[in-house]
Here is the input.
Amino acid sequence: MPKLHSSKHIVRILENKGFVFVSQRGSHVKYRRYGSPTLTVIITSEPKGNTAGDVPVNSSTGPVA
Here is the structure.
């Protein structure tokens, strides 16, 4: 599985690459760089993992509720 980065880290990378803040609505933040499409970053408290992989599994019956 690829390494997940926090939204703060992604915003820092975009700003270092010349993207500027355009707008924010709730947890969605838009960044734009001249000549590039607008990118939307969802701001979260921590990176989300694979939710299916986070569910405990019983080998005989499948996912445990």
Remarks:
- Residues 7-16 form the longest helix (10 residues).
- The domain at 1-44 is CATH 3.30.920.30 (Metal Transport, Frataxin; Chain A).
